[in-house]
Please model this.
Amino acid sequence: MNAPQPHYIKLKQYILRHITSGTWPPQSRVPSENDLAKKFGIARMTVNRALRELSASGVLSRVQGVGTFVAGPKAESAMFDVHSIRDEILSRGQMHSVQMLTCEQVEARPTIAAQFGLEPGSVLFHTRLLHRANGKPLQLEDRFVNPTCAPEYLDIDFQIEIPHQYLMRVAPLARAEHAIEADVASRRLAAHLDVPEGAPVLVLTRRTWSRGLVASYVYLTHPASRYRFVGSFEVG
Model:
């Protein structure tokens, strides 16, 4: 006779059935450890093991103090490249669309001014755009631009030419630096990205130079359940 399956395996199968059937769609919240333990009459430690293993395999996404969510298929971006989100989406056979949220001239706060090597209060251009793939939010772009490098930036039609494409044309890239951090979605950010409040997000911060000046400083925020960064390099 076959030995009975451990409780944590039965629980994993239960969760997977709900996901594959569509009962629990991507980004939906999974019942809490306490609720699952009570439902199945098992120890919370057993539930924790099942959720932990499903999270490690990329099926679930867990946020400490918030909850557990169903992950979804993830788009990929090359970690070391400076590229167009439009080209990236189109290359996967998806439809790209963009929504303008903010387009303004601002006086730079000290922290932002420092990124450009400018005095606080210096004039910068500021835009916020929401990029979608097949109608689903994939990237919130929050960008500051040096007017010296791109004086007509606020006048361009971002439906035709998104900021990356425009800046590569008028302010050729000479240098770039970036950092990637994990965060959780605030209520406002969650509404933009169509994820639950507190869901994990990935934030890429990038600064670019052109002709000896910092041309752009941008925050690119992605839902972690639908996006990941990948990269490789050779030694020698």
In short: The CA atoms of residues 85 and 170 lie 18 Å apart. The helical segments are 7-20, 33-40, 44-56, 85-91, 110-116, 163-170, 187-193. Residues 76-80, 231-236 have pLDDT under 50 and may be disordered.
